Amino acid sequence: MAAELVEAKNMVMSFRVSDLQMLLGSVGRSKSGLKHELVTRALQLVQFDCSPELFKKIKEIYEARHSINTDLGQPPQQHQQPPPTHRPPPEALSLHSSYDRSSTVPRTALSTPNIDYPSLYGKYLNGLGRLPLKSMKPEVRLVKLPFYTVLDELLKPTELVPQNNEKLQESPCVFALTPRQVELIRTSRELQPGVKSVQVVLRICYTDTSCPQEDQYPPNIAVKVNHSYCSVPGYYPSNKPGVEPKRPCRPINLTHLMYLSSATNRITVIWGNYGKSYSVGLFLVRQMTSAELLQRLKTIGIKHPELCKALVKEKLRLDPESEIATTGVRVSLICPLVKMRLSVPCRAETCAHLQCFDAVFYLQMNEKKPTWMCPVCDKPATYDQLMIDGLLSKILTECEDADEIEYLVDGSWCPIKAEKERSYSPQCPILVVGGSTGGTLDVNGVPPPAPSTNGENGKVPADVVDLTLDSSSSEEEEEEEDDDEDDDVGSRRKRPRLYKKDLASAC
């Protein structure tokens, strides 16, 4: 049945407008519209309602067209070698150009065993499946994702075109996987239970040809694969008031809902039409892990220590226009991401600083939430720009008892020992009380000069007051204070109580 289905679709692809109208009219379908609309309508009819009667009708129309060519003296199409310029290469297929395949697909293509079925009938979106114009417009390009290695391009980024004035639009895409692609998926390892490393993913972005575009979902997006809906990443909760939650726009894995056989798959993108233009693409990819990217970086991304040393010299080179000469620069051996000692020091080649971060944690963080921003200077640091600092890697093995080093002008380095935490010592003067000749000691234990006995203006200096007296004094001290107050009733001011101990802090 699958072979008959493929044969029927290939026959439909070779029909002219009159043949398509005859086929659609025989089953009571609309015959109006452009050729690409008739082709899509006929292919959908074959895909979802291919009865024996319909297959017989398709074959009759196809054989009738072949017999007409024979009666006109033309050689049979199955023995006719098509000119090389008549059939465009499969990779040139586009969905936004004029479609006319009335004589481009020879009959011999129907029986070719190595035919690339997706290139013939697999790229239909919004009812469009056309050949390119002579003057091609710039194509939409998607940014390269380090964790996804593209194996095949199943559908080039294609614009989502509204079919009516409704806010909610549906755009279908029908395609089939080749046996080689199916085998790649089936034999790939599992990243986790039920998730293969080789996947068919859907990517969506803005329709902008000026530069490679990042993934961006349209409003109200939903993706249906065959007869089931595929889960789409949700929104990150926002902790700030008045800030809308953000949605992580990533490739959508469709593999677990697809037919891994020669049967065709139907993917429908449901999206909200609110003025902005979006494009979608389908790709066969191999998803990588942070450990695999780290191993690749260690293989091809290490910068030789001598080159790093030359970079240090360049940074510290004397600038004749500068009034201040830089004699050294400090570099921490602690990762700014996790506050742990560096294990694989790296930075982006575009960064102007010498400070490194740990490649292990950087890749793990971007695997969960890809931002690819340098944690030191907060500038883009993509995977292709990362390099491992060979000089700092060597220093890490030689310097195990320091958390910071200093690069010197000649490219050498020296460790900077961490200062030990100072034990607490009172910074205020220590009062020595308890005698008629009270005094203080400074922080070095040296007593200051003795004060005048007469004091200023002939007044007797007051005894030192204990400023650290606890509010919860003993009853004995309270009684002693009461006795002192009774003895000095006639005096205008009370005499301060003296602290009994020898030393006290003045602060």
UniProtKB/TrEMBL annotation:
Pathway: Protein modification; protein sumoylation. Residues 128-288 form the PINIT domain. Pfam families: PINIT, SAP, zf-MIZ. Keywords: Ligase, Metal-binding, Nucleus, Transferase, Ubl conjugation pathway, Zinc, Zinc-finger. Residues 320-401 form the SP-RING-type domain. Residues 12-46 form the SAP domain. Residues 95-110 have a biased composition (Polar residues). Residues 70-110, 441-507 are annotated as: Disordered. GO terms for molecular function: ligase activity. It is found in: Nucleus. SMART domains: SAP. Residues 473-488 have a biased composition (Acidic residues). Its main location: nucleus. Residues 81-91 have a biased composition (Pro residues). PANTHER family: E3 SUMO-PROTEIN LIGASE PIAS4, ZINC FINGER MIZ DOMAIN-CONTAINING PROTEIN. Belongs to the PIAS family. This is E3 SUMO-protein ligase PIAS4 isoform X1. It comes from Gekko japonicus. The gene is PIAS4.
